[in-house]
Sequence to fold (320 residues):
Amino acid sequence: MPRNVFVTGGATGIGQAVVRAFLDSGDRVTLCYRSSQPPEDLLQHERVAAIKLDVTSSAEIDAAFAESEERFGPVAVLVVNAGATADGLMLRMSDNAWNTTIETNLTASFHLTKRATATMVRQRYGRIILVSSVVAFTGSAGQVNYAASKAGMVGLARSLARELATRSITVNVVAPGAVATEMVLSLPDARQAAIAKETPMGRIAEAKEIASAIAFLGSDSASFITGAVLAVDGGLSMGL
Amino acid sequence: MDQQAAFEKFKECAVKVLGVTPDQVVPTARFAEDLDADSLDLVELVMALEDEFGVSVDESELEGVETVQQSFELITGKME
Fold:
């Protein structure tokens, strides 16, 4: 029986690679997207339900879950991947840049996991993977909002992991380093080169290298892993 | 709905959510000690009762609710 895998930010980058990874495992995927249009092959896929969703609206989250459950049954796997940045040095960071980043990355994680676990608890099964970032641990100049939101996701995940462990629901975090997505490729070349140089493996990641770790944590092979933070960063954060 | 019918409905919910037998769900039964329910079980039960009885229970109202009778009164008290 194929599972229903709910992925936010599924149109591009890591999210799109996650959608493809779960499709490869035979699952059905609810692909949520906001600003970027998903590629045609995924929109046409018989095991994909594409739903437009602004994760900062809990009402839209409720509606998206209802539509997803209607199509593919209860959500068994939730991948919280949608994220936003609004970079700038803190002395010049607006309240709006702080608030929108926290809302999109952290508050949305709360609403999404809350909605998903309401049914997972009844099913006595669930896999939740939150996509954080290596900057949750290293910090990042110009990203106090983003780094704080991504560190917050770790605390959320580990607390939730404790609450739901007895129901066979696992909650884990993947912390990518720099990945070849629009977010990183739009940085100046010199900055990209500097990131690659700091990384022991000497390069930035492909989105599918992050997706395969997420697919593993979402699989039955990872049944005894919960509350873990899996760094997928070419060694960038080791020791932290 | 009379009290008896309401209690039967309550009992059905408890049996389904807590995985206990109907004869265990008596008014004096304590959730933790007699029905082996943890805090998450109780949250699940309250959510099921809210759906079933069409009522809404605030977290603060659950303070001190330890027995079947107490929770039954809390739910049915909201039905008027």
In short: Chain A touches chain B at residues 118, 121-122, 163-164, 166-167 (CB under 8 Å). The longest strand of chain A covers residues 169-176. The mean pLDDT of chain A is 96. Chain A has one domain: 4-177+208-229.
